[in-house]
Amino acid sequence: MRIVDMLWVAIPALSSLLYAVLLYNIATRNTYLEPAERWRVAFLLLATLWSLSSMLLHAAHHVISPTAIVRVWALTNFGVSLTIFGFIAHLLARPQAQRIATIGTILYGFIALLIVSGLVVRTARFVHGYMEIEMGPAIIIAGLYWVIYMYGAGLLALRERWRTPNPEFRQRIDYLLGVVVLLITGNTLNLTPLRSYPIDILFAAIAAVLMGLSISHNHLLAVRATIARVLAFIFFVLLYLIIVSGVLYVLATLAEWALIFASVMIALILSLLLLSYAPIRRHVEQFVERFFLAGYDIEPLLLRLSRIGSRLRPPKELGRLMLREIREFLNITTASLFLKDEASGTYRLTAVDGPINDFPSDVTFRLDSPLIHVLKSCEGALTLEMLAELPESSGLWIQEWEALQTVQAEVIVPILAEEKDLVGFFTLGHREGGEIYSLRELRQTLPLLAGQVAIALDNSLLYAEVQRKAEELARANEELKELDRLKTEIIQNVSHELRTPLTLILGYAEMLSEGLLTEEEDVREAGRLILNHVRHLRRLVEQLLAFQRMEQMGFTLHPFDVNAWLEDVIRSWRPTLEKGGLTLITDIAPDIDRALGNESYLRQVVDNLLDNARKFSPDGGRIILKAWKVNDAIYISVSDQGIGVPPEKLPRLFDRFYQVDSSTKRKYGGMGIGLALCKEIVERHGGRIWAESKGIGKGLTVTFTIPAAPNPATVEAV
Amino acid sequence: MRRYKEKTSELVRRREFERAWQRHCGFLDLDIQGFMSIQRRLLTEQLELGKQSPLWRAMFGDVVAKLTVDNFRELIPLTEYTDYEPFLKDKPKDILARPIKEWARTSGLGGKPKWIPYTEEMYEHLGVCTITTGILSAARQKGEVRIRPGDPVGSNLPPRPFLSGLSLWASSEFFDYHFIPPLDVTEKLGFRERTEYLFRQAMIDGLAVLGAMTIVLVRMGEMFESGKNRGFSKEMLHPKALWRIGRAIVRARREGRRYILPRDLWQLKGLQCGGTDTFIYRDQLEYYWGVPPLDVYACTEVGIIATEAWNHRTLNFLPDTAFYEFIPYEDWVSERLEGKKPTHTVLMDEVQPGKRYDLVVTSFYGGALLRYRLHDLLEVVALEDEEAGIRLPQFRFVGRSGSFIDLSGFAGLIDEKLLLRALADVGIPYVEWTIRKEFRQAQTYLHLYIEFPEGSRVNAREFRDRLDARLKELNPEYSHVEGMLGYSPLEVTVLRPGSFDRFIQQRLREGADLAHLKPARIQASDEAIALLLRQSAE
Description:
heterodimer; A: 718 residues; Rhopdopsin 7-helix transmembrane proteins; Beta-Lactamase; six-stranded antiparallel sheet; five-stranded mixed sheet; 16 strands; 61% helix; elongated; B: alpha/beta; Rossmann fold; GMP Synthetase, Chain A, domain 3; 2 domains; four-stranded antiparallel sheet; globular
């Protein structure tokens, strides 16, 4: 038996066995066959018949009529084209194509009739070991039918491949295209001298396997990569063969073909061994990766990101630069960066790149957001669809989804530091060409980029932290300097304020003790002066202690009659002021009645203000005391025509120990506590106090507010 | 705001079944902590949205601004539809914080419709859940997604604005089913027309998933089994229909049957039935239709609340439909017997196996309802389904509160399920029935009005005794009632054949609502009983 004859028995038999196994697998796995599976079953049945008829044709043509066998072969072959079309139409769920398949089924009946009646294959016989087939007039119709459905299947798959942006689905379609290509090639080879070999049967068997893969498995082998690896393997073998064959050709007269065959086998084995050697395998894989798999080389981008990250920049600027690089490289519309903000307990939008109209500054995600929880635990990047599909994401708020839409996110990439600490995440928008992100990009490329970003951010955040601490230190330093200066000033002021009366007291006491004052009048005068100065000293000390007392004891607020209270103030101050040559003008609104406060503390405030006004007013000047009501607040102001305050010093007027003129040669005394005390008292009433002055020599108006009493007897302990 | 840009049918078309399963059925992998985490989070959002909701501000005042997850149960009382009705009855557009997409309607007590607004997010969620039930009805194991784009899905359930119609429309945004009848056609057809259209067209197009009233499917199965009433229609001349009938005959013969069943005509992937009597007919439905029915618990107020898993055993709550509170059964009993309003509720992580609870829901996604009593009793069967590997509490629907009759100090003594079971066990075919508590001469009775088929020779007395005996066997508490009362409370009135049919016709002439064509099975009104008796007398 010739080798070819052996092949004609072995290959169809093995193919039939393969089909039987596949059919058994389908039968045991499914109690319900979806339409695509049914077409696949039909294909397997027809392919089995096709194999068997081919086998019979070559092995038993002298027993069974070749014409009959060829007609069976033709029946199955034309049927196979329909089953492939039907399979693809249903797998791709295209209703129109499915209808065409249904029509094809009806037409197939007609074709079958033509075949059986001998209008397609008239006769077939073996002449000198070669098959001669006489075709009938209907061969064109049958052929057309085969071409329409077989090529139609291919076009259907190609169109789907063209339309879908999903790279994984394109891979599945590659398998379908492989099926079509194999069957077309196998049948086409039957028109060439290669029809002597069962190539079409072999190809049909491979097609059956590919069909099964296309329908069964979710994650498919990358077809291109597989072909590439096989080609790479063959390349090495071929190279070796060429070298070996070249040498052997020279020695052809001496060598036997059996030796050549043995060399080929050795070459094959050696190639395998070579490929198992890691460095060579790595080169082969890189070759494959570069030319067949990766749509782009990520290394230049990583390098650029690394360079950007090597310079210390604030996180916002760093983020924007890196996002721009990523966006431009991957041809993405928008990108945004969210970083963890410990102070606010959120992940805050830090940088955006791309044509987003307004930079939405308030887009945040709380630390307890399900998005954050998912990102901490996910492997790689997530599309928005994948995020939505996770059960935990059911807890995402509408505003959080809207936030992701605001930044036009399609993909979210976590930026993880050590120990799965989520430093932040960046989002990427859709691709310019409409292509969607592949699994490879989600699982490898983008996490790789995120790693680079994480390193850069780490440095940047450290840098930002250092900057912040340096600024804090500088501020603290300035404050310390100011405090130091203030301390010196306070000591100067206080000592000056205390020394002056003490000096006077000492002087008069010495005079009294040494009996230098003999006249009764002089003694009384000395006593009076000593008493006045002692009282002044006591006042100063009490002022110093007033803050502490308020802190410790607090005071209660109660409703009081503001009108009566003001009348009392006016009554006690008018004589003093007039004695000093000053005029007190009052302007009390008639709608003022009751306020909520502590009368004696508020009295201190008004006394202090009037005393200051008196102190700083020129002779003959006017002091205006006003009171009016606005909504729930009572306003009281004291204005003078005195020395005034420069506007730039107004904000500090109510600071403790602050003096507008802090020099020791200043004209007016005081420790700078009075207004600070007023502010403390007013603020404890829930009011506010402020000063207005147009400048030096233009007087000063100090106004404060206290709450009007809403209804009787509301007592509040402060 | 849509979460899903891509339809589930696209995922299935690309054979990304894992993703499709996770999208719709991933909640079954949650544990109780994960479930409660989602509940609390969505409730937080809902309370925030409620602060901007004109409805809640009008109903609850300034307290809405202070509501938190921890205090809202103390600050807000349990609510009923009567609290919402003044605000919702005219279907105002801007009553909620989120835009309203659709209004769903259900028949309230007394014939007045209840209108419930669905925000865009609620509507999307309804669509997602409807596909969930479709996937689970067809799944035979975890992770199996058998539905395909283009699958013929038949439904004769009420169209929009009822929930059944709304859910199909919402689901069409996620899956390319081939609906029979088409959704826009359904809305123009009456119930009978819908049913006829469905099964006639199904002869040509086939059926992959079927959703219908339980009793309709049972009656159809019985009709097939009896071999009667084989109506002819022109659709049967279609080659596909002829092929289907021929294939059905072959299947029937293979099983040794002379009659064909619906399962011979259609190899369903999934079956979803509506009706409280599904549990009674479960085995029958599987026999007639070839697949076990999937029990789904849904309500117009919030949508799909719970569903059986692929093993068709017990109900699993969906964590993102509404916030669930449970009134303990003891409080429910106190309310019924003593009028004491319940104040205490427990949450999903606090329910106990073997206990019954009355369900309270708070809408999510900006919906209208806050602490709304559904008046549905559910029982916790177990805290987990070990067989399916589901770590969530497993429930069984017991009945609607209104479907219980209290008698003689026993709350929930008689309910529709109990009657259905007892009647089925008695074994005498009937057409329809209604039962209610009546008072005569200071005595309380359980009065059953029942119609038997034409030609039945049922001895009313004997029937009453058998039913009474069976009720006592099924419900031990019922067996104590006679001792307490000193007489047997059960009375039976046999109605003339056709009474219920004439009742329905009369109601149709009066323009009654779909849900009020028949008298309520439990505690029908005086007016309904009077009309029924008149139809019986005619």
